[in-house]
Design goal:
By secondary structure, the chain is an alpha+beta fold. About 25% of the residues lie in helices and about 35% in strands. It has 12 helices and 17 strands. It is globular.
Length: about 425
């Protein structure tokens, strides 16, 4: 699963923006350009699914801080997310097997604001699945063959809380919406201020991996320096506060332990060993043995922020399974000498998962490729705009003449 495109209107510093993504994406921009607001788009969608629309809006500070202050109620707030998503469903229809393979998922919703009021209405709420239809037949040797019947689409929408499903399918397919969505369609009327993303349908495996598969990390290296209770999430917290719990799990398995130490040697070659200690009060903290002091471990509270940051980054890139990983300023506390190794690690990890990072560090930009870079800048009206510098001829000409991408960024020449 990967995110292909994201569109947003009337959100914080954005008027209207559209961005396309690759496997590795480096989001850059000056201070107050809108990078944090860009991350908040993803955070808002996650909060809608986990906590509901009203709560998600409240977590953004309310309607007035969700939408752009200059635009206000004059334009709908909207989000459109387009994913590449390989999913399939097989079922029996009239004693015959049929299969649907879904290859693209589009979810869009919009909120209409009432003038001089903090109230709102859902003006659009739609899930669009593009797919292929197959007839499944069993061979004499017991295997199954898929015979393609044609392309189609499934559109699930909610209008004033009323759910509607439209299926466009090939002529020879006998499937209908009830075969796939029978339990979901029993939810005949959604409560006010409720999106499709909040319904039981989005808790089904078909959709859950797409929208819950985004992790947003803003690593705080001070938190893992303290001991933490042994009870905690089995996934790395977005601030890395439960780093000791995750390390304990990794170090228990010989294969993941070997992989972890091989990666750690790339960023922290002075580390000789790392271990987790469980205290009598049922708390955990991790400790490191350096090659310079091989006789004893150093407790976490004596470690540098860079050591903890690098350790957490390795876990986010290689040991957490979410298909889309967003990291805010991963270069924090990392020495410039190690920056090329860090960027190469992120590029390597992006072959298995989609990586999106934000940065304003020239050293990170130096080792990224022009095709990876997404630029966020403020226009003359104060709106944040999103562009790909690679699409500009003059930027490609600068690079061809051996002017580094990082130098163009420092000299503010990428904004044009």
């Amino acid at each position: 699963m990967s995110l292909k495109k994201l569109k947003v209107t009337n959100f914080k510093s954005f008027n209207k923006a559209e961005m396309q993504f690759g496997s590795f994406n480096v989001v850059i921009g000056a201070n107050a350009a809108g990078k944090s607001n860009f991350i908040q788009i993803f955070q808002f969608i996650k909060e809608v699914i986990s906590s509901g629309l009203d709560n998600a809006i409240s977590m953004q500070g309310g309607i007035n801080y969700l939408r752009n202050m200059n635009i206000g109620a004059s334009k709908d707030f909207s989000v459109t997310a387009v994913f590449d998503q390989e999913m399939s469903w097989t079922g029996k229809v009239n004693n015959k097997l049929e299969k649907i393979k879904m290859h693209e998922l589009i979810y869009e919703f919009a909120l209409n604001f009432k003038q001089k009021s903090i109230d709102y209405a859902i003006s659009k709420d739609r899930l669009h699945l593009r797919c292929e239809f197959f007839k499944v037949t069993k061979t004499r040797i017991g295997t199954y063959n898929d015979e393609k019947l044609g392309d189609g689409e499934i559109i699930i929408s909610s209008r004033q809380g009323k759910i509607n499903v439209i299926m466009h399918k090939p002529a020879h397919s006998h499937l209908d919406a009830d075969h796939i969505f029978a339990s979901f369609l029993r939810e005949e009327q959604l409560p006010p201020h409720t999106l499709l993303a909040e319904t039981s349908f989005f808790s089904a495996p078909l959709i859950r991996e797409t929208f819950n598969g985004v992790s947003i990390y803003n690593i705080n290296p001070r938190l893992p320096k303290a001991a933490i209770p042994i009870t905690g999430k089995a996934m790395l917290e977005e601030d890395a506060g439960n780093l000791a719990i995750i390390l304990k799990k990794i170090l228990k398995n010989s294969e993941t332990r070997r992989k972890f130490f091989n990666l750690l040697a790339e960023l922290l070659p002075f580390v000789d060993n790392l271990d987790i200690e469980e205290r009598p009060d049922k708390s955990l903290f991790f400790k490191v043995k350096e090659k310079y002091f091989s006789s004893q471990f150093l407790p976490a509270f004596l470690l540098s922020d860079g050591t903890i940051n690098a350790t957490a980054l390795i876990i986010t890139l290689y040991f957490e399974k979410q298909p889309i990983t967003i990291i805010e300023e991963p270069e924090r506390n990392v020495h410039p000498y190690l920056m090329s190794r860090l960027v190469n690690m992120m590029k390597d990890a992006s072959s298995a998962k989609q990586i999106i990072i934000t940065t304003h560090n020239p050293e990170v930009i130096k080792y990224a490729t022009l095709e990876d870079v997404i630029l966020i800048a403020r226009d003359k009206n104060g709106f944040s705009s999103i562009t790909r510098p690679h699409n500009r001829k003059e930027i490609r000409a600068f690079i061809k003449n051996e002017i580094g991408l990082e130098e163009l960024f420092v000299q503010n020449l990428l904004e044009g």
